[in-house]
Design brief:
elongated, 4 helices, mainly alpha
Length: 81
Amino acid sequence: MNWKQFLKPDWRKIVLTILLMILPTIFIKGITSILHSCPVGTINCPPLFDWESFVVMFTISLIITYLLSCLIVWIYDKVKK
């Protein structure tokens, strides 16, 4: 198996990537507390949500998760044979 075949998307890799991205967020508590605004009267309140950081972290997370799903599917295929 070469790299092109290893990284080629198929339905198993895509489904596994989506599951690996969604399942951890279900178990994390307190996400809404991150997105709340600053308390009244607070001076110099830092921004609570930065879109640029979110996009960068989401992209990195998606790449790592897809590579992990490729590895899991590859191991599954090796064990199956």
